[in-house]
Amino acid sequence: MENNYPNLQLVIKNDRLSAEKKNKLSLLGRILSLVLTYAFLAFMALLMIFPFYWMIITSLKEGMEINQMNPTFWPQIIRWENYSEAFSRLNFGTLLRNTLVVGIFSTIGTLFTTIFAAFAFARLEFKGRDFMFSILLATMMIPGEMMVTTNYVSVSLLGMIGKDNLMGAYAAMILPFMVSVFYIYLLRQNFKQIPNELYLAAKVDGKTDWQFLWKVMVPLAMPTLITIFILKLMGAWNSYVWPNLIATGNQDFWLITNGLRGTFSAAENINDYGVQMAATVIVTVPLLLLFIFFRKYIMRGVSRAGIKG
Amino acid sequence: MESKNNWKAWLYLAPVIVLMAVFTLYPIVNTVVVSFLKDYNQINGSSKGFTFYNYQQILSPGGLFYEDVWLTALPNTLILTLITVPTSIILALFIAIGLNSIPFLKKIFQTVFFMPYVTNAIAIGMVFSVIFDTQTGIFNAIFGTYGFPWIFPVPGGATVAYGSALFSICFYIVWHSLPYKILIFLGGLQNVDQQYYDAAKIDAASRAKTIMKITVPLLSPQILYVMITSFIGAFKEYNSVIGLFGTNGGAFDKNTGPSSMKTMVFFIYDQIAKGKVQYASAAAVILFVIIMLFTAIQFKVSKKRVHY
Amino acid sequence: MEIKIKNLTKVFPGNPKKNIPDTTAVSHLDLDIPDGQLLGLLGPSGCGKSTTLYMIAGLKQPTEGEIWFGDEDVTNLTPEKRGIGLVFQNYALYPHMTIYDNVKFPLTNLRVKTTKKAVKILDNQKIDELITNNADEIIEIVKSSVYKEKISKDAAARKLVFRFHIVTSLAVKIFRLGLHLVPADELSAKIAGIKAELAADNQKITEKFAKHGYSLNEACECLTAEGTTIIETRRLSTSEIDGLVQETARLVQIDQYLTRKPSELSGGQQQRVAIARALVKKPRVLLLDEPLSNLDARLRLQTREEIRRIQRETGITTIFVTHDQEEAMSISDQIVVMKNGVEMQRDHPQDVYNNPQNLFVAKFLGTPPINTFSGEIKNGALYIGEEKILSSKSFTEDKPVFVGIRPEGFLADEHTKDEDKVFSITVKAIVTMGRDMSLVCEHDKFIGEDIKIIVDSDIDAKIGVMRFAIRPNKIFVFDAKTEERIRFEAK
Known about the structure:
Chain A is 73% helix and 1% strand. Chain A is mostly helical. The two termini of chain A are 47 Å apart. The relative contact order of chain A is 0.12. Chain B has a single domain, classed as MetI-like (MetI-like fold, Orthogonal Bundle). At the A-B interface, helix 1, helix 4, helix 5, helix 6 and helix 11 of A face helix 1, helix 3, helix 4, helix 5 and helix 7 of B. Strand 1 of chain A pairs antiparallel with strand 7 (111-115) of chain C.
């Protein structure tokens, strides 16, 4: 073997071509792959955007136009009435009020519980800390469906369900979701990154934990808190299942998504599509606005989840 | 100092502990218990003793819900999961790798790809039902399949085939789940040290080889994470069905379409609404067991292939 | 492979909007590196040495200039087409692959150009040779490869590979011959039997080749009807890959760790793996980026000798980058000192030390560093302060100068007889270091913190003003403005 292998002349592919040709080939190859990549991405991006585009233009079309065999890519006649009709059919005012109440209160509630818990887990030393935290993490694995049934029974036993019990309905929609283990985890990570020296310095200055928490840690962790706020708010806006259960039989308790689906059942009448789409635009636009303004926070919060992996 | 800390810490944790005990821990236990109770009455909490009756109704032929669950909801859920998860993961991987390698327009593409995430699953589901509409849907128009029933049957004509309905919901689920995966993969890709790519270049590895042998293995922790969360998420699919097919989950009848597109979770909520909490609980427990099984399998398989 | 670098320049464009100016990392570098040389690129951080290395590798594009490997202009070639091996500063070993796979990786992307051979016959010949001459040893090795009380095929194969420098598949074949199962008295018969089988097999293979119209020559190469050898370009076979990997692993002495992953190895071992990966494809040029900077002091000494040994054995043209002058001095054939992207001097290590061309090079090499004074040339002699240090007819112009005196260039006691050439320095502290003595001194014409002088420990040293003579070959004079060396002949 010693005779054989050391004398192998190793050669790079296409070695017979001159250096000039090699350059040209690799340049061509690079350009080609770049073009293909852009084409692929552009195609996928188009697929991603298309439903939004279609949603908007359909919401502006007249029933007749929607019904045409050859769909148009731009409304011939713009029918703004679709929107006014959507607003009224949706009972938008009530829905908005409900959603905002539930959303804001549950978000604020979550923020508080999360801040307290994250602080305890990140900064305070106490017996059983790690054990508690692991239990918390473990519950993240349990699907929500396991808890829904019992929670429904619980809230009805607590008297929150009732035909005219608006406050009860609110409470039922807020309380079970005031704790989110994921956000506790996120905030704890953020808190942990604040150097311990600050804590010790504050102690030396005679500050209590409470003061330290609110004067130092919360301001420093503000980006994460904003992320939590926005994501939770979005969650409330998009929630469907639980409010649907709570509000069974009483449409006035509906949140916005319930209203959307409930008001328009599928495939009613063709003119309806325009109004339906207008309604979906109304429901979707606030989210997109949030996205435009707070894009950084949202994307950062979601990708953090992956690092945990 | 120690004990003072203990006391304080528990105070801080109090709200969390109370809320979780009531709305998380207690329910988990209770659901399992209820699933074994016969004729559970949710209003006064009475029951007629422990039994396997509820499970029997779901799992054995001849049971009340055998057809609904074992023949419809469970297969639906499984097929849906097995189709959408691999498809969306592979697509997301390609997109993320592509995104990571382009020199310009990165931010714009990222924003566009992330848009579906910030939307309402049900709202956009309704948009998709318009797109897939039999007579007027743009999908049919683009592909020339006029009048092909994807979601809604042709009045007085063709029924919706199971395959078509499945196609439309899978299409939607993949569309909706791509942004999250793309974001995670992109994050993971950006964490890969440029040096490995340089070394691969010196080692004369072609583009494809670099991706297969270097990028993907280095991305394997993220891939595993996405796989597990996607599987779990797909098993719990509910909102998309509501969005696309309506509140009765596409309850077609013989004349209009396939038996149903209901998923497991659909069944659970259905039962709750009907007041039959015990069946819902049993179904939830079954769902949980299946999810755990799949997750455990994935972990086992990952031991060999995931590199940290 | 000789390397020629012409007018190599790299400018990183700045950002006019943010007022960041263009940075010139490398400026008009010209180098000729003969085949087989070990060249050190030496300089402080940011002097452009790593950038130069990366441009030679092809990972960075030069703004101007050309790079030639032999008679091929590789300036615009991508890295994989240049045939180089690069050892990264942080090794960049693929963490998810075993060492074996890491070293093997480059080979899977290459093709081999070789004559068509009857490989099987060559293998058979090798087996024949081994069982004839080394049967007893083989049996001993196999019997000693026990794992969990059973003879292990893998362990035996590994040991055979190690001992006889053969390929794994061959080792497995030998194991399978079962020589260790045969009782002693039947051994020679068995061996004869195997040899007969091998001969028969060779015959069959020869006949098969003949059917295709090929005959075989002495070296088992296929010959066409006209008697010429056939050259083919093909993928490497598993055996060939294995052979190359094993051979390179032996060269850098990592053949014990082939099944482990990089995270299980120490820094020094990882380094050697990185070198193996670079060398396995028999590149024409080997590049190393600060190879020793991540190792602890003891390992550094060991490893740099390793690099030297490996380079000598393989004869590959090698360039390495470092900021440690001791490292560069100890193993390079030639050193190029760089500062701010410009070549300061290029010479054999000892010459760079003994004959610095400018103040920067003089100060950069040498531990402790050279002592710099400000002085002047007046009337054909060199003065530091008021004292005349030496005279020379080369001192034609009067001008201010920098004077550098190596720490070892001071002579005391009997050498200070000649008043004309004596230098007075105030000694602040005496530090005995066993063989030498280090004197910490001060002088008002000295530029810097403390003067360090190294003398033999049996010199009569005392605190206070001492007088020294200066070795003429340890004193260097530099123009105060240009910092260029002023050469002179000592009288």
